[in-house]
Amino acid sequence: MSAEVGTFFALVARDLRVLRRQFGQFLVRTIMQPLLFVFVFAYVFPKIGQGFHGGSTGVSFTTVLVPGLIAVAINFQGIQAVALPLVQEFSFSKEIEDRVLAPVPVWVVGLEKIAVGAAQSLLAAGVVFPIVYLVHAHGAAPSLHIHDPLLFAIALVFACVLAAALGLFIGTVIDPRKIPLLFAVVVIPITFLGCVYYPWATLTPIPWLKVLVLLNPLVYMTEGLRASLTPELPHMPVWAFMLALVGGSTALTIVSLRTFTRRVVT
User: Fold this and answer.
1) Could you read off the pLDDT of 169-191 as tens digits, one per residue?
2) What are the domain boundaries of the chain?
3) Listed residue (115, 110, 86) closest to 260, CA to CA
4) How far apart are CA 52 and CA 30, in angstroms?
5) Which residues are CB-contacts of 26 (< 8 A; sequence separation ≥ 6)?
6) How far apart (Å, rounded) are the C-alpha atoms in residues 54 and 100?
């Protein structure tokens, strides 16, 4: 094993050890958002007679919501796990200076952050499944089945990488003084316009919005998971979201590594 590869895995092991020590905090920040969504839409609304449905397909709204909630957990965790610590490291903690002293090119340090962020996003996705199965009113349980395991695995992995790469990009270009605006200007709009609560295909009556949301990476994460978990619902063509997930994660990884290197060097 080369020194670069050994150093890379040493950095990964260090970050995973920190995650293990802070696993309680990780669970809290991961669980709260999907838990509240599921509690309101799958438990409270059916109990008070305000349940939704999945349109003409007759699929329950809980089933429609699950792929979106998984995608939101992935996206939120990827951004939070990479961007927020990175902003701190560049501003007051200066920990990034110690990391780049490792005997590897600077971009390897950024790649390690993407890898650890993607791993945390994958864990976050796994946390959502028991929540949606356990928290619901009688008769409002989601109907889920992994119809295409390979498609599901590919969409899941590349969604995690895309979210982590987005986190690295945001963390290297945002001004630390403006970090409070991150969730108001980036995360919240991405969530509400990410086809979480409705399939992308149902936006046909609003053509300008259907085109505009294609700029949102969360749309492709949600549609990829929806195609493999709830194929009975209308969804984006497989080639389209796969091209966006694979191509987008690759391109954004390259761009974010360049912005990371530029930020460290300067």
Assistant:
1) 988 888 777 776 777 777 788 88
2) 3-265
3) 110
4) 25
5) 19, 120, 123
6) 50
